[in-house]
Amino acid sequence: MARLWLLLAALAGFTGVALGAFAAHGLKGRLGADYLAVFQTGSHYQLLHALALFGVALLALRAPGRLVNLTGGLFALGILLFSGSLYGLALSGVGALGLITPFGGLAFLGGWLCLGLLAWRIT
Question: Where are the transmembrane segments (predicted)?
Answer without folding.
Answer: 44-61, 68-90, 96-120
